[in-house]
Specification:
The complex is a heterodimer of chains A (about 160) and B (about 290). With about 160 residues, chain A is mainly alpha-helical. Chain A has two domains: about 10-110, Fumarate Reductase Iron-sulfur Protein, Chain B, domain 2, CATH 1.10.1060.10; about 115-160, no CATH class. Chain A is about 45% helix and about 0% strand. Chain A contains ten helices and no strands. Chain A has helices at about 5, 20-25, 45-50, 55-65, 70, 85-90, 95-110, 115-130, 135-145, 155-160. The longest helix of chain A has 14 residues, at about 95-110. The mean pLDDT of chain A is about 95. Chain B folds into two domains: about 1-120, Glutathione S-transferase Yfyf (Class Pi), Chain A, domain 2 (Up-down Bundle), CATH 1.20.1050.140; about 140-290, Rossmann fold (3-Layer(aba) Sandwich), CATH 3.40.50. Chain B has helices at about 10-15, 15-30, 45-50, 55-70, 80-95, 95-105, 120-130, 130-135, 160-165, 175-180, 205-220, 230-245, 255-265, 280-290; strands at about 1-5, 30-35, 75, 120, 145-150, 185, 225, 255. In chain B, α2 crosses α13 (about 255-265). The longest helix of chain B is centred in the N-terminal third of the chain and has 18 residues, at about 55-70. Chain B starts with a strand and ends with a helix. The model of chain B has no long low-confidence stretch (mean pLDDT about 95). Classes of the chains: A mainly alpha (about 160), B alpha/beta (about 290). The interface between A and B is large, with 61 and 61 residues.
Chain lengths: ~160, ~290
């Protein structure tokens, strides 16, 4: 489906400018205000080139108009961003679209609306200090290549620095 | 020169032969890697950053502070770690208010982020601190005639405002480092395409990986050469998984730059772990046996 055919879905929404305030409260979220919808972010976006639905300009537009239900959801398009930062290279307004998308992801987490994988992987960092598992096989391989055993990560330190300020 | 290596989760647990290949090869060039104690995950630029950006700044700042105590620049070997540590380092250097907030949190464990060191990927250190000629001097078995299809991955180059390594649209760093060891870098249609690992749905990265594999096959390259263990995961094991799904065989060997450097310095394919890959780089075994 072409993007032009997708646009009419916009009509079904009520504008919600209060969402902009919410997005402004997350680190780097304020950058969405700089977007003037020029589309420079779209042409070289790999997720756009390889799907019918991902479009960084439309994500920015939805943020500006406050289409909160579409953006803040586990099935939201934002989760298909490849984080390649090509859009940030192309943007003439310093919107840094990837950073706005990350701010939207932070809002999803805050509201319990992120895909399970995000919490699984990031929980692992909080619990073990790593995203991957230290297995007996990993230790065996390391010693075969002459590497030192893996030291346990200072997870108590992580817990302390992430406690509520 | 002394550097503090930051190998990250993937290389530490899944691909230790990349870790050892880096250590062995850069020592010959003159780098002195002094391990620091107390690192955690960088933390990862995709999931952990998506969870909470302020927490992401904080954990990364703690890692940088650990290295600051050792007093040397951080040398990274994974593009994900490079992305997190470089971006947080720059954000805290540029934003005094953010730095204060982070330091308030680090104070609870007696640490402080100062902003006194830089974070650089190992290939950047080779180019800028030692030079291509120095890399070439360590070569005893030039990889003549080896066609390496270059895969940059995203986070060595972008965002260029942060990374400041090369032109993100016309980079030359990896091509030049391959030439320095006698190999022939092959620029293909998808040289700069992302590996797609961060996407939550499979269809986008699947199509990207298939296109990259086909683009490399069209150039008759002997292998793909890259510098990130996550990209490696996506292409080595990834092409097998995808091949089963599509009922196709890609058979594109994927090699980490420091394995190639090791072979060029006279190490055996087994010493650099080439026998551990899902898709074997036959041409490299032949060259080493010749």
């Amino acid at each position: 489906m072409s993007q032009a055919e997708k646009l009419p879905t916009l009509k079904r929404h009520k504008l919600n400018f209060a969402f902009r305030e919410k997005l402004n409260s997350v680190p780097e979220g304020f950058r969405h205000n700089y977007c003037y919808q020029c589309s420079a972010c779209v042409a070289d976006c790999p997720a756009n080139n390889y799907s019918d639905s991902f479009n960084p300009r439309l994500i920015l537009l939805k943020a500006i108009l406050g289409f909160e239900d579409e953006l803040i959801a586990p099935g939201s398009e934002i989760w298909n961003c490849t984080n390649c930062y090509t859009c940030s290279e192309r943007c003439p307004q310093d919107v840094r679209p990837v950073d706005v998308i990350i701010a939207l992801k932070n809002l999803c987490i805050r509201e319990g609306k992120a895909p399970a994988l995000v919490t699984t992987v990031s929980d692992s960092v909080l619990e073990s200090g790593m995203t991957t598992k230290v297995t007996p096989l990993a230790e065996k391989r390391r010693s075969e290549y002459g590497l030192a055993a893996i030291k346990s990560s200072p997870v108590d330190d992580i817990k302390k620095i992430l406690e509520d300020d | 020169m002394k550097y503090t290596p930051f190998f990250g989760c993937m290389m530490t647990t899944k691909y230790p032969w990349f870790d050892s290949s880096v250590r062995k090869t850069v020592a010959s060039i003159g780098l002195d890697l002094v391990d620091a104690e107390g690192f955690t995950c960088c933390p990862d630029p995709i999931y952990f950053q998506a969870r909470d950006k302020m927490d992401w700044y904080t954990v990364a700042a703690r890692n940088i502070a650990v290295a600051e105590d050792a007093g040397h620049d951080i040398i990274t070997t994974c593009s994900g770690c490079t992305a997190t540590l470089s971006e947080v380092n720059l954000a805290l250097k540029e934003d005094e208010e953010l730095k204060e907030k982070v330091n308030k949190r680090l104070k609870k464990i007696g640490r402080e982020y100062k902003g006194s060191i830089n974070v650089r990927h190992a290939v950047t250190v080779l180019r800028d601190d030692y030079g291509l000629d120095r890399v070439a001097e360590t070569v005893t078995r030039p990889l003549e005639g080896l066609k390496v299809a270059v895969h940059y991955g995203c986070h060595l180059l972008k965002p260029s405002r942060v990374m400041r390594v090369d032109d993100p649209d016309r980079p030359t760093i990896l091509e030049n480092l391959l030439k320095a060891i006698g190999a022939e870098p092959i620029h293909h249609d998808k040289t700069l395409l992302c590996c797609g690992r961060a996407c939550m749905t499979d269809s986008i990265p699947n199509s990207m990986v298939a296109d990259i594999m086909d683009s490399i096959k069209n150039q008759n390259a002997d292998c793909m050469g890259l510098i990130c263990p996550t990209c490696f995961d996506e292409f080595d094991l990834g092409q097998i998984v995808l091949g089963r799904k599509l009922k196709r065989t890609f058979n594109v060997p994927v090699v980490y730059y420091f394995q190639l450097l090791g072979l060029a310095q006279g190490l055996t394919p087994e010493e650099v772990g080439l026998n551990m890959h899902k898709v074997k780089a036959e041409r490299l075994f032949e060259m080493a046996a010749a």
